[in-house]
Amino acid sequence: MVCSEAGEVYSRKLASFVEKRLKSERTASIWTSTLQRTILTAYPIIGFPKIQWRALDEINAGVCDGMTYDEVKKNKPEEYESRRKDKLRYRYPRGESYLDVIQRLEPVIIELERQRAPVVVIAHQAVLRSLYAYFADKPLEEVPKIEIPLHTIIEIKMGVTGVEEKRYKLMDAVNPTAEV
C-alpha cells in the first residue's frame, strides 16, 4: 500500500517539521499505529525511534470496514442511523465503539504520561479524538465530535496550570472520500 500523493507530501512536510522542531530533543520518539498509512507517514522522519502500537490502530469498523459513510448509509441504513444517533456508544457489528477505543488506549495514555521527552503520535481520527479529549480534559460525550483537522500538528504540553495547545497546519487538506 502506498500513501496518496497528498499523503506523501504531508509525510515529507511532517518530517521536516519534526526534525527542525525536535533537533535538540534526541530522546523524542515517534509512535504510530500498526497500519501502513501511519507507518508510511512516519517513514521520512529520521533520527528518532519509531514505536508501533496496535492500540493506536483506527476504530475497527467491523462489517463496514473500507466503506465510505455514503456506502454505509446506502447499504446498511440501520447501522448508519444507529451510529448517527449515538456515535460514542455505537459499536459496529464485529467492530468497535468509541468507548472501546478509549478503553484500549489506556496503556498508551499511561505510557504517554510517563514520558519526559516529546512524543509524536501519528494515528487516526477516532484515536486522536480520544487522546486529545483525555489530555485536554474534554467531556466523554464530546469525543466523537472533536475536530482533528487533516495535515495539522496539534502540540500539547502539560503545564502546572493545565494544558497548553498549539496547532500547526502543514498543508491544506485535500477532499478525500471519508471512510468509516
From TrEMBL:
Molecular function (Gene Ontology), one example: fructose-2,6-bisphosphate 2-phosphatase activity
- Top-level taxon: Eukaryota
Q: What's any GO biological process attached to this entry?
A: fructose 2,6-bisphosphate metabolic process
Q: InterPro entries given for it? A: 6Pfruct_kin, His_Pase_superF_clade-1, His_PPase_superfam
- What Gene3D superfamilies does this protein map onto? Phosphoglycerate mutase-like
Any GO CC annotation of this UniProt entry: cytosol
What this protein is called in its record is 6-phosphofructo-2-kinase
Organism of provenance: Triticum turgidum subsp. durum (Durum wheat)
Lineage from the top down? Eukaryota, Viridiplantae, Streptophyta, Embryophyta, Tracheophyta
